[in-house]
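User: I'm preparing a small set of examples for a lab meeting where we compare how different chains pack in three dimensions. I only have the primary sequence for this one, and I'd like the structure in token form so I can line it up with the others. Please keep the answer compact; I'll paste it straight into my notes.
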Amino acid sequence: MDFEIAAILFQDGIANGAIYTMLALGFVLVFTTTRVIFASYGDLIAFSALTLHAIQNGKLPGTMYIVGVLALLAAVSECWWLIREGAYRKIPKALLLWLVIPLLPVCLVVALQGVPLNAVGQILLTVALVVPIAPLLYRIVFQPIETSTTLTLLIVALVLHYALAGLAMVMFGAEGVRTAAFLSGSFSILGLELQAQLVMVVVMAGLLSAGLALFFNVTLTGKALRATAYNRDGARLVGISSRQSSGIAFMLAGLIAAVIGILIAPTVTIYYDSGLMIGLKGFVGAVLGGFVSYPLATLGSVLVGLVEAYASFFASSMKEIIVFLAIIPIVLTRWLWARHEVEDEEEHA
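Assistant: Understood. Below is the structure token output for the 349-residue chain.
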């Protein structure tokens, strides 16, 4: 391996690491707020890429049907719960939040069918369709079992992955797709050729990370999420709704997934079940951060990207194995040095 090849692999590793960083941030955000290891997170990325491809080709994306069904189920679930609680006055607000708002992008997609859209319009429409899926899934699947153990929540998340993958196959078909590139070409810095797409991915990862940092440190909602992540019961005692915080966390995770799907769609062939493998790489980065530290999750994700890039050169057929094997010594080290305490969730068992 000469310097030029090493530099190219380094660029690929940084680009992959940027993607996995965004994924890991979503995993950590959801887990710290809700204790859910969102195993079906990668499916939202696949939905984003498949939706963008359908919109670019002037077709109605299958995502609109998924959003429509989920919105109806979420609205029925919320209204039934309010009726049981006797909170009839909150039903109109619940219908607006869980039915009307999620259906707005669906109606917009139908209204704009056949209308040529520029790249920005295609991206915005894709994001508007994909983002509601995550909070709707939370309301339907995870909120009713929010006091369950972490293991139970993980099992449910895994089952949800296979359900979403099956829906994706029915709605989008089994063929892989790639979207049209938004940026092309390259430029030279210090003698190194940098692809414009790579720079865009890294810049977007940086902007997204900075945006999340500002959100958590400046906004009242972000501080409420931090409080919920730090002490769920304590946040509830001071008037912070844990369910509202959880819904916001899932919505932000959906936004991150939508952005990732749009970024990787021009460079990677996406199938209906591609989300699992993509999500697992971000999961490894989140594990390296202990599922609690954003900086460590970022560092771990970049390391995963670099390991994957260089492993593809030395042993391309085993790169996936090498990436996942790298998690074992890290987990063992964290386990040996961690303080072993009884989990809070056992109190709810």
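A couple of notes for your slides: The first strand starts at residue 186 and ends at 189. The beta strands are 186-189, 192-195.

User: Perfect, thanks.
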